[in-house]
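User: Structure with coenzyme A, tokens only please.
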Amino acid sequence: MSEDKWKTAITDIGPGKIRVRGYDITDIMENLSYAEAVYLILKGEKPGRAEAELMNAILVSSIDHGASPPSVLGARTVMSGGNSLNAAIAGGVLVIGDSHGGAIEQSARIMQEWTAKDDEVSVLADRIVDWLRETKKRMPGFGHRLHKTDPRTGKLFQIAERHGYGGRHIDLCRALETSLAEKTGRSLPINVDGAIAAVISDMGFDWRLGKGFFIISRLPGLLAHAYEEMTREKPMRRLGPPPYEYDGPDEREV
Ligand SMILES: CC(C)(COP(=O)(O)OP(=O)(O)OC[C@H]1O[C@@H](n2cnc3c(N)ncnc32)[C@H](O)[C@@H]1OP(=O)(O)O)[C@@H](O)C(=O)NCCC(=O)NCCS
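Assistant:
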């Protein structure tokens, strides 16, 4: 291959040939689940049993969380404006950002950078919480508006435990929950984003893929909402009474 060609290590295609990470697509279709195939394409290797079950649980865990999250409102609003399905889904994905779906990336980054140090996880957890408090930041992946205990977190960690799976990131995640409670006096449970961050970090995924896990997981949910909006609601729907009060200048002349 000449030097000026693009190079990719992901998929090799040719007439009648599709090989993802070296495996024939028909072999993957028959022998791997969707979650295993996602693991394969992102990581380059097939998952073991524990990683396969965890990957599946991660992708299912964030598939939907009701009609109120910003990305769902985005998808439904774009659809309601009279746009195509792909525009609605793209709109929903565009709403995902540092404050919605972004906690996986931010949390995994902190966990991965701090576990590179040699200290015990309980020492690291205390130092992280001190650093966050000094810099007036929150620990991403902890706390939830609705759930006192996020049921998805317990299930992910339970699957990991069943396989004797887990390393310093899951341990650090748990230690952070304890340290946050001790130092802030608040119960800030590990939410699903924090749990996913810990699990993907123990699986060896780069924190920069964090938002990607949320996007892959939430996509079917966005599709379902956009389709429901398309088929069940009138166009240009107002989502409830105007959720704002005008507090700008009174009427005035130019
Ligand atoms: C998810 C979240 C927005 C829910 O917030 P909430 O329950 O409405 O709580 P509030 O934003 O009103 O915060 C209440 C107090 O708890 C503190 N707090 C909340 N989450 C915190 C966190 N993750 N780390 C440190 N402190 C936190 C706030 O600083 C605030 O303290 P103050 O009253 O002294 O100012 C919040 O916990 C958060 O920002 N978490 C981090 C981001 C995250 O994980 N997002 C993904 C959610 S699935």
